[in-house]
TrEMBL record:
One biological process term in Gene Ontology: riboflavin biosynthetic process
An example Gene Ontology molecular-function term: 5-amino-6-(5-phosphoribosylamino)uracil reductase activity
Organism placement in taxonomy: Bacteria, Bacillati, Actinomycetota, Actinomycetes, Geodermatophilales
Pfam families hit by this protein: RibD_C
Protein name: RibD C-terminal domain-containing protein
Organism: Klenkia taihuensis
Domain of life: Bacteria
Residue ranges of domain Bacterial bifunctional deaminase-reductase C-terminal in the record: 35-171
Length: 204
């Protein structure tokens, strides 16, 4: 069985909506689209690229798919080569036209379809796609969570951990990656079984 990795770019208050551009996801009147762009650096780009080593499939929500399908086929470089070459699996409640080569629409039973994708590939990356991520978090249908934290707060927007997130235990897989010149940090977590334990810190 392969692994599903969630790649999530977030602010310190864990807003993950539309990091890449103003038109990426203006839902809810979000006015900070593209908040990640001023915080990008050469070192941060290298970290992101290294994180995609071994990726052999993408799992995307429909909105993220539309953004990627309009952009990556026109680009060159390592990311474009990877994204254009690997299979793309798309979660959508509708029947969208999938024009990007190698794209497949997942069936209506999303958890079952995702499990089939994980059986078929070694490393499946979920990029952005916050609505899809909420389902994967609830179903605990992921193996690693890569949280790219950026040193800003927005106070509005869709959160990485939204309403409906279930109690979950994770472990830090390695020390946080060195902060980039702009102060962004990568935290890599692995999913553990069970639910969070409780205790009493006042007990003698």
């Amino acid at each position: 069985m392969g692994q599903i990795h969630l790649e999530l770019f977030a602010t310190l208050d864990l807003v993950g909506q539309a990091p890449g551009g103003p038109d990426e996801d203006p839902g809810g009147g979000f006015t900070f689209g593209g908040w990640q762009a001023p915080l990008m650096s050469e070192e941060g780009g290298a970290q992101v690229q290294a994180s995609y080593a071994g990726t052999d499939a993408l799992l995307l929500g429909r909105r993220t798919y539309d953004v990627f399908a309009a952009y990556w086929p026109l680009q060159e470089g390592p990311f474009a080569e990877l994204f254009n070459a690997v299979p793309k699996y798309v979660a959508s409640r509708r029947d969208p036209e999938l024009t990007w080569a190698g794209s497949t629409l997942l069936g209506p039973d999303l958890p079952a379809a995702v499990r089939e994708v994980r059986e078929r590939h070694e490393v499946v990356k979920v990029v952005g796609s916050l609505d899809l991520v909420q389902t994967l978090l609830r179903e605990k249908l992921f193996d690693e969570l890569h949280l790219w934290l950026h040193p800003i707060t927005l106070g509005t927007g869709k959160k990485v951990f939204a309403d409906g997130t279930v109690p979950t235990v994770l472990r830090l897989l390695d020390p946080p990656a060195a902060a980039t010149p702009t102060g962004s940090v990568l935290l890599r977590y692995g999913l553990l079984e069970g639910t969070p334990a409780t205790g009493d810190m006042t007990a003698g």
